[in-house]
Design a protein that fits this description.
The structure is a single chain. The chain is 65% helix and 5% strand. The chain is built from 47 helices and 10 strands. The strands form 3 sheets. It has a 5-stranded parallel beta sheet, with helices on both faces. A 3-stranded antiparallel beta sheet has the order 8-10-9. Helix 31 packs antiparallel against helix 32.
Length: 972
Amino acid sequence: MRATSSVIVGRAAETGLLSDALDAASRCSGRAVFFVGDAGIGKSRLAGECAYRAYERGMPVLRGRATSTGLVVPFRPLIEALSSRFRAAGTPTDPELDPYRPALARLVPEWRQGSSPGYPETVIELAEALLRLLSVLGQEHGCVILLEDLHDSDTETIAVVEYVIDNVADLPVLLLGTLRPEPGVALDLVRSAERRQVATVRELAPLGDADVREMTASCLEADPDEVPRTTHERLAGRAGGNPYLVEVLLADLLDSGQLRRAGDRWEEHVNPDASVPTGVVRSWSRRLDRFDEPVRELLLCAATLGNRFSVTVLQTVTGFDDRTLFSHLRSAVEANIIAPDGADPDRYTFRHALTAEALVASLAPAERAATARRAALSLAAVVHELGDEQRQLMATLQLAGGDRHGAARQFAAVGRRMLTSGASGSAVTLLERARSLAHEGDLRSITESLAVAHAEAGELDTALALTGELPPVPPRSEASEQRGETHIRIAWAAVMAERMEEAAGQIRAARAVLGTAIRPEQQAALDVVDGHLALLPGHVDHGQRARAQDTARRAAAVAEERSLPVVACQAWQLLALLSRERGFDEADACLERMLAVSEQHSLPVWRVEALVRLGANTFMRTGDPARLETARTAAQSLGALVPTQTVDGLLAMNAVMRGEWDGAHEIIERSVAASARVRNLGAHRYLLLASATLAAHRGRRRDLDRAMVRFRRAGGEESLLVPLQLGLCRAFAALLEEDRERALADLDASLAWERENPSFFYLSGRYGLRPLLRVLDGQDGRAELGAILESPGADLAWNQLFLRLADGVLHGREGDAERAARTVRSAVADAVAFPLARHLGLRLVAGAALAEKWGEPVGWLRASEEYFYGAGIQPVAAACRAELRQAGASVGQHRGGWDRIPAALRTSGVTPREYEVFVLLAERPGNQQIARRLSISPRTVEKHMASLLNKTGRADRAALCEFSAECAAERD
């Protein structure tokens, strides 16, 4: 008889919690639940119960477990969880997952073939891809992901779990995790999530006496009152309420014959001469003694390999042939000690983690060490065939066998490979383990690798502290070469973190250790890192930028000559950034070379980077988004979420400028939340700015104010986007409210900011809108406009519209009416891609044309009025009508304006003109402000206000304003 319980005992509150969480997930109200408890307390039983209940509801279940062997395998529980699902149900084919397949290929082997190699996706990108996958799987009934033994998990998995916890609330997903209450990152994460109220945590208490009796009865298939009193007392006293220990001790009683069936009842027969087990270790020792020697040897070897073990490795260690090996494994399975691992056909697992620990503990220390040494030597004989996981196992066995230094070398080798693959968190774990065990002769190189791992994991301060502890190295030696490479890599990490002082310090350290005998390729790598310092925010040393350009050009040549394609791409990218202040042609030439190098050497990440930058330049020069779309497709094919979101920001802004407002909104919505989740701060800020600019260009002040709050909270007003915020967003909002004075003030503020913080954002109004307004106000003339026309910013199609309009105004002012009109017509014809800017420009220059009697101002005003009326931007439309009246021109009536009025107001008799006033009341302006924005008299505003109060039945102005705000919210 198997001494296992078929029911869960004493966990009613926990099973109720699971039922509630499953119900919530099916309603798209995701939950994160964690069970914390000691080994054997029942965490896995509850996870199994959750899986069973989910299956009953038709919910997909993904189940994975961390390894308890101490091996560091990035994403191991997640890989197992996805495999457990897809092996049974196949991989999903939903088109929604197409952008995420390359990132998920790291977890789903079936998606690796045919995916573009080489993109080092961040942990957060991978987590976002997993979240999208879970959302797709759960779209019908919800889904469950079960991750067990998280206390043994790798840091990358913990980072993914943290991301899922923080973002699961509105998704059809239940995350259930289990872990022991052992100090570590997993427990820290769970406690933090509980404090932030984003996860539910339950600590599993030991079973009470009544529960132990009920569980014993279930194991014996008897009623609770049939359990012998002495048996119950023995189990309750020795198991301490631990369900696993109850089963183990009960199995010992059954195997030894001390508890047996006598007719229709159970009887306990205590042998006074028998050795009574005092704990689980002695219990397992007794059970082992009942097996044949070969089976006993196999189980001890398997336990030495860990709670989960590979059949292939076990065969290497034991030397058994296939027939003998599987015969012994079947015996152990029949004894309920091990079971096949459902997640991996090559693996078996002990029925509980304590089983393997107890078996190993049953050996004498010397025998334990000898078994580990024998296993390590068996693996060392085939070390060239071992993967990272097997090498870690070998190191663990070496350590158990007393070879600390050999274990350190194996841990370090695997850690360095993980660092190369981008798993910097796991690399830190392994290299720290190696450093604690290393021989003095290996300590320096391991510490250098550990410092780089910390730097690339974002722990720059720790990396710098480690380099400060390193001993000097002999000049012109292999050690000095390695030390120089260490400083260069940490310097690059410091540049990426915008830590200028620390980056410069690492560059100096690298130059000092490499000395005068520095090789050209090392010099090239240093020059590229050094050159990027000139681009960091707040750096205004133009002399250093010029020097950086010279050294970057030399670095690019050396890198291509010495076959260092990554350094070459870094150098060409740096050159493109530095040369853009002289014009786009030179910058594009650098990017084209970067693209060629990346394609020649199959560097997909750098190819995407080149395409993104080329697309951005083309978009700014011509307004054509086609090349940006190509860049987005390339980024998507790699599963590169960060570059994809960056391109989406640019595409959204392009759509705003082209007047494609619905398209802009769609792009922003698909990426703005995701960019925040993956902490892609640059793209997130740009998307928020695009959202604000969209509101500004639609004349929606309330939406603009809300968007500006989000932009400010994301740190936008401390970023390099400030000039765009002022010049492309706020200035346009002011102009669409007919407040030219405030618009010019915003543009002046943008220029002042750029002078203090040089940047290459040529859409800030400095090279287009501001010169036009200053020419219209008579502040600038031909000389000032000529200076602007010489700058690279004048090449942008958006800016050219305003500069050519300014040129036309100056020709009209100089008396050349024909040339003035021709210039305006030509500018407008070439700006067909930018309808709002084109019509706003016509509205701005029409006043000068009327006053100086040139061009076709009446036609321009009518075209502008028609456009702005159709766009719902009433202040400009009203201003155009006012100027037409002043010019003595007829003004058409928009009788169709009735359809803009909500039904409730229309049936109350509110007219289109009254509705224009009503819409503005949401912002609670005064009558003077309304009059100015609609180009009507304050007296007319008073009449409309009185009529609105009467028709809407509101008691006073405040109530009418509140009603307007409510209607505005419904329109949004």
